[in-house]
Amino acid sequence: MSAPLRTHAAWRVLDGFGGSKRAWSRSVAPRTTDEMAAVFAAARAEGMQVSFRGAGRSYGDASLNSGQLSIDGRAMRRILSFDAKTGVIEAEGGVSIAEIWRHTLPQGWWPAVVPGTMFPTMGGCVGMNIHGKNCFKAGPFGDHVLELDLLTASGDKKTLSRTQEPELFRAVIGGLGLLGAVTRVKLHLKHVYSGRLKVRPLVSRNLAHMFDQFAERTSTSDYLVGWVDCFGSGDALGRGLVHQSHHFAEGEDPKGHETLALSKQELPGAIMGFPKSLLWLPMSLFANDQGARFVNAVKYALPEPVSNDGTYLDSHAGFSFLLDYVPDWRLMYGRDGFIQVQLFVPDATARDAFAEALRVCQKRNVISYLGVFKRHKPDDFLLSHGLDGWSLALDFKVPRDAQRLWDCARDLTRIVLEAGGTYYPAKDQVVDAESFAKAFGPRYDQFRDMRRQMDPSALFANDQARRLGLA
Ligand SMILES: Cc1cc2nc3c(=O)[nH]c(=O)nc-3n(C[C@H](O)[C@H](O)[C@H](O)COP(=O)(O)OP(=O)(O)OC[C@H]3O[C@@H](n4cnc5c(N)ncnc54)[C@H](O)[C@@H]3O)c2cc1C
After folding, report:
1. Which of 382, 378, 384, 380 is nearest to 129 (CA)?
2. Is there an atom of ligand 1 within 6 Å of 19 CB?
3. What is the pLDDT of residues 426-446, one digit of tens each?
4. What is the tens place of the pLDDT at every residue in 182-210?
5. Does the C-beta of 49 come closer than 6 Å to ligand 1?
6. Which of 158, 258, 263, 412 has the most CB atoms lying inside 10 A of its own CB?
7. Which of 15, 40, 20 shows the shortest CA–CA distance to 459?
8. Atom of ligand 1 nearest to the CA of 141
9. What local confidence, expressed as pLDDT, does residue 173 receive?
10. Of the CATH numbers 3.50.30.40, 3.40.190.10, 3.40.50.2000, 3.30.43.10, which one belongs to the domain with range 5-72+456-467?
11. How confident is the model over 87-100, as pLDDT tens digits?
12. Separation of CA 409 from chain center
């Protein structure tokens, strides 16, 4: 590093995806691990704390670092190797999920786990140990990472795997970027024989029905996701739709090979003739309680076009990245943005906890405009949110009188804790350190110990980690 960071690292205002958290920080974008190591040394010398930012797709303050240094990981975005026989790909930390599947799908490989948007980077997917609509079956992202490279606070380069420093491997995955920079990921992809999925939509009369529909189908589905109309009440509390989908087996889809082409995965440029780039504008007319109630009711009542067997075909990108159909959709929430709270609750308590959560929101008149329901399975990562249970993700517009939202969020934090659940940092901006520590129990202390050992001078930190007492 030739010039001091305080001179050459520009100030930028960065936000979380929800747009309700913003922070000024200096930003640099190293292109190699050596450049990154030099940035670490310079930051230490200049008394700055360092955070990592991938695509900035975490909803809250996970990738923010107020007044300190933010490393933009996207300058390191080379795909290093891909073996089309084994489906193993190696990529730098700044490579996105989109860049991975665009590289591999034509040869029949799709990432085993993807989030609901294609823009997150390898570093961000590792840092949060993201999950997909198949988490009940495939587990989280970390279950498919064979190996990764970590650049530590001292500038050491370590290669980690289930056999090489396995404890550190399990702490870095889901470790919020607090143990070092993930500079390379070796990932095992899933073999697919078609670019399409068979999707079966099912109507759920209420939350209890949705739990039952999932329970009946987890052993026979590749993907399951529930959409919840959070305005439903009484017998219709938590009503919604379940989407169950399956991969085609080898030879089953007559158009299997041709649909692997990238041209068959592109999301449409216009919806009903309206350019997608401007769609958030008319959508903003519905981003209020009456509008959202109407949209949710129409979505619930309108049957989706299906063939005789009750299914339709959708591309991998279309099914997986529904939220990417409308670019910049988050802008519809206006200047103060929105937050997401995702409740992770064990199987034994989830039915009661989710019903209580929906009722509390209605009582407080803070109703989520979008609810998403999933089934999860446990994993062995140190700070993982994964459990043998369920999640309910709730998007809330930040209202003018925001205090009622923060009060409601505090209730939701309490409901999770009382139900024995966990919090998911990728979606969180409201949980306090005490609740987080209680939810994770001894794992919280183990993580803090490991962090102290790996980074004794506390070089790495971010706004979320400070709030959660992890930095
Ligand atoms: C529309 C939408 C849908 C989503 N759907 C899902 C979903 O279905 N399932 C799910 O699990 N998540 C979902 N997410 C959340 C998203 O997948 C995670 O927040 C993910 O971590 C974002 O990756 P990113 O590259 O943007 O990382 P950022 O948000 O920029 O950073 C996230 C974390 O990763 C760390 N990090 C980033 N890069 C590195 C690096 N190189 N080395 C070390 N640490 C690093 C940061 O320190 C930070 O703690 C969704 C987000 C959006 C916007």
Report:
1. 384
2. no
3. 999 999 999 999 999 999 999
4. 999 999 999 999 999 999 999 999 999 99
5. no
6. 412
7. 40
8. 11
9. 98
10. 3.30.43.10
11. 999 999 999 999 99
12. 19
